[in-house]
Amino acid sequence: MLALLVYAFIYSNTKVVLREYDVASAELPAAFSGLRLAVVSDTHGKFDRRTLDAVFDADPDIILLTGDIIDDAAQIQDAADFAGALADRAPTYFVTGNHEWATDAAREFISKLSLLGVHVMDGRAEYFEKDGGRIVIAGLPDPTAHGDNPSPAAVLENTKDDFVLLLSHRPYEPDHFAEFGTDLIVSGHVHGGMVRLPGLGGIIGPGREFLPKLDGSRAYKGANGSTLIVSRGLAGVKFYDTQFHFPRLFNPREVVVITLTKG
Asked: pTM for this one?
């Protein structure tokens, strides 16, 4: 048993796996069928070659960074180098998480990413076009974001006639934004529940809650046809204001790969 726990600890905190999902939508333009999205979430200042290799192996058309990329200002340059390498590979889109805003350096980080060509999507929506078709990519800032942040209604205004991909660091039920016509929501934040057990899934949420509901165990389907995908992330959960991260167990670090299909 001890050997199993040691192996699971090492595997969960060093290995990076690709977790693949297929999402079909009648709203998707035919030109986008087969489009591949790579999701990188919750790195918490940990940038390693394994993660880059996993993303590159996925051969994505679009890369999505769903927040908590940094934990403190000292990580900004390493994070920018990491994000720049991703942006050189494919169009890259980013929304902030709670840890960016906890650093008090979120705006500096945002500015640096923008200079590298990363699309910072906090409170914004824009079209992504391909072969005569288009989809909407939109993003919500974390609720802890500083300043006057636009509401989801303002961000998603006039998007109901398009396929809408929404980035939100914190996961919400897939029908939460149904009135705005969201088709796919991509999130992180929960870290897969940190420790995962068969039959139970994730055990501990980022707010120290027991058995978090949206822990990335599967694709979550809404009654209106929307889908929520929650990345289990790439690091442990930071313990309050310390540099200690709770380790993962039976829960390997992951890059999520989503293939969109018309259907």
From this structure: 0.95
The predicted-structure confidence for 49-88, as pLDDT tens digits, reads as follows 999 999 999 999 999 999 999 999 999 999 999 999 999 9
Residue 16 has pLDDT above 80, yes or no: yes
Six-digit token string for 142: 């974390």
Compute the distance between CA of residue 171 and CA of residue 182 in angstroms, rounded to an integer.
14
Q: How many domains does the chain have?
A: 1
| Alpha-carbon span 201 to 205, nearest angstrom | 11
CATH number at residue 13: 3.60.21.10
Strand order in the sheet with 227-230: 124-130, 133-140, 164-168, 184-187, 227-230, 220-221
Which DSSP string corresponds to 154-217?
A: HHTTT-TTS-EEEEESS---TTTTGGGT--EEEE-SSGGGSBEETTTEE-B-TTS-BS-SSSSS
Which domain does 36 fall in, by range?
2-262
